[in-house]
């Protein structure tokens, strides 16, 4: 009788410890998700700001290049057309290399972010 009572008490303690472990695991998952979401949103925001500022810089550089080309070609229409063709060529090159330039780095970033075991910190 004494042994059976001790076993039931031990099983009860084990159950309480397991319940506490599950609650801690739930909290860990919440914190881990919050950390990964923070990293992802920070990265998206940073890239968006850099793309916006970079686009403005490229716009002004394109205007400067168009005015310079217009002097070289002798016509503003030819200068701006030349710059438009250069931008179109860059867009086509980017489109055909989008897998290498966008998809793979993004997949690598997401895999590193979500599949990291926590050893990297």
Description:
With 121 residues, this protein is mostly helical. The protein has three helices and no strands. The chain has helices at 2-73, 76-96, 98-115. Helix 1 runs antiparallel to helix 2. It starts with a helix and ends in a 6-residue tail after the last helix. The relative contact order is 0.05. The model has no long low-confidence stretch (mean pLDDT 90).
What is the strand and helix layout of this fold?
Layout: H1 2-73, H2 76-96, H3 98-115
Helix pairs in contact: 1-2
Largest sheet: none
Taking the alpha carbons of the first and last residues, their distance comes to: 52 Å
| Poorly predicted segments | none
Report the helical percentage: over 70%
* Proportion of beta-strand residues: under 5%
The number of helical segments is: 3
List SSEs in N-to-C order.
HHH
| Radius of gyration over C-alpha positions, nearest whole angstrom | 29 Å
Shape: rod-shaped
Structural class computed from helices and strand pairing: mainly alpha
Question: What would you call the quaternary organization?
Answer: single chain
Domain module count: 1
Short description:
This protein has helices spanning 2-73, 76-96, 98-115. With 121 residues, the protein is mainly α. Helix 1 runs antiparallel to helix 2.
Fill in the keyword field for this structure.
single chain; 121 residues; mainly alpha; 3 helices; 0% strand; rod-shaped
């Amino acid at each position: 009788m004494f042994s059976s009572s001790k076993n039931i008490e031990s099983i009860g303690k084990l159950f309480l410890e397991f319940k506490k472990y599950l609650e801690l695991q739930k909290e860990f998952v919440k914190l881990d998700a919050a950390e990964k979401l923070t990293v992802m949103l920070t990265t998206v925001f940073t890239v968006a700001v850099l793309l916006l500022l970079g686009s403005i810089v490229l716009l002004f550089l394109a205007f400067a290049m168009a005015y310079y080309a217009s002097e070289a070609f002798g016509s503003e229409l030819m200068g701006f057309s030349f710059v438009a063709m250069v931008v179109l060529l860059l867009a086509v090159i980017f489109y055909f290399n989008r897998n290498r330039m966008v998809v793979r780095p993004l997949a690598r970033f997401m895999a590193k972010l979500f599949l990291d075991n926590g050893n990297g910190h």
